[in-house]
Amino acid sequence: xxxxxxxxxxxxxxxxxxxxxxxxxxxxxxxxxxxxxxxxxxxxxxxxxxxxxxxxxxxxxxxxxxxxxxxxxxxxxxxxxxxxxxxxxxxxxxxxxxxxxxxxxxxxxxxxxxxxxxxxxxxxxxxxxxxxxxxxxxxxxxxxxxxxxxxxxxxxxxxxxxxxxxxxxxxxxxxxxxxxxxxxxxxxxxxxxxxxxxxxxxxxxxxxxxxxxxxxxxxxxxxxxxxxxxxxxxxxxxxxxxxxxxxxxxxxxxxxxxxxxxxxxxxxxxxxxxxxxxxxxxxxxxxxxxxxxxxxxxxxxxxxxxxxxxxxxxxxxxxxxxxxxxxxxxxx
Length: 332
Ligand SMILES: Cc1cc2nc3c(=O)[nH]c(=O)nc-3n(C[C@H](O)[C@H](O)[C@H](O)COP(=O)(O)O)c2cc1C
Fold this sequence. Notes:
This protein is of the alpha/beta class. It is built from 14 helices and ten strands. The chain folds into two domains: about 10-250, TIM Barrel, CATH 3.20.20.70; about 260-330. It has helices at about 30-40, 50-55, 60-65, 85-95, 110-115, 125-140, 160-170, 195-200, 215-225, 240-250, 260-275, 280-295, 300-310, 315-330, and strands at about 10, 15, 20, 45-50, 75-80, 100-105, 145-150, 170-175, 205, 225-230. Helix 6 (about 125-140) packs parallel to helix 7. The chain is globular and about 55 Å long. The relative contact order is 0.12. The mean pLDDT is about 95. Bound molecules: flavin mononucleotide. Flavin mononucleotide binds near residues 146, 176, 230 and 232.
C-alpha cells in the first residue's frame, strides 16, 4: 500500500518520492551502481564528484563517461576551489543535462583538501561563498551543498555556512555529522547537525553511519533533518536507499527473493563490463562482488572461499557461473 506523504522533500521544483537518498562515493557510486539504486527506487542518486577544472578541459565524451546518463533527477556533484572553473563547470553540466548541481564541501581526502577543495573550503567561508555564488549565478537549475560539521572540533561552522549558502540561493543541504579531522573515525554525531536545521529553512539531509531503518529514524530525530543520505551502508546493497525510503514513507517494504538479488548482481556485473570495457570492468567490479558476498554470506570461512573464487579469475564466464552458484545454493 502506498501512503502519500504530504511532507515530500522539494529541491527547487523536484518533489522527491522519499526521504533516503544515495550518497556520492567516488569509485563506488558510478553510473552502473546509481542505475541499480535508481531502479530499486532510490528517490535521488548523486554522481561521484567531478573536478570542475578537469571537467571543463575534457572533451564531451570523457565528461559523459565520468558522469553517466540521465537518472531523474540528474544530480551532478562538482568539486573545485576556483570560482571561474566552478562557474564554467556549472554551464558544462547543464549542457550535459543536469537537473540539480551539488557542490562538494565535505570531502576529507588529503589530495582534495591540499588543493583547498572539498572540506578545506570550510576553513574559509568567505572563499567558499564565492564558489557557491559562482555556481548559483551560472545555474538555471537548483544548487545543493554537501558539507561536514566543520574542519575540526574547534570550528563547527556548518550552521553558518548553511545559512550563508541559503541566502546565496542554495536549495538543499546534506551534512555529514563528523568534522574533516575525524575523517571516518568514531561515530557521526547526528545531534550536532540539528544546529544546521535551526539555521536554515530549506531541506536538510543528515548523513553518516546510517545503515538501517532504525539508524535513519534515530538520525532524523536527533538532527530534525528532513531526510537521510546513505553512503557505505549501501555497499553491496544498492536497494538500501529505496528500502529505507519506503519504510520511512510507511509503504510496504520491498520483498526481493534470492533470485531478484541474483538478477541485480548479474546485471550490475554486466553493466560494469559495458560501462568500463572488459579489461577494467572485470577489476573494478570485484569490490562490489566482494561486498555482495559479505552481505549474503555471514559464515566467514564460506565467504572467504567465494571471495577467492570471484577475485582470482578474469574469465567473465567463470565469474558469472560462480555468482549463479552462490545465489542458487542460497535459494535452498
Ligand atoms: C569511498 C568513498 C568515496 C566518497 N566520495 C565522495 C564524493 O565523491 N563526494 C562526496 O561529497 N562525498 C564522498 N564521500 C563521502 C560520502 O558521501 C558520505 O558523506 C560519507 O561516506 C559518510 O556517510 P556514510 O557513513 O553513510 O558512508 C565518499 C565516501 C567514501 C567512503
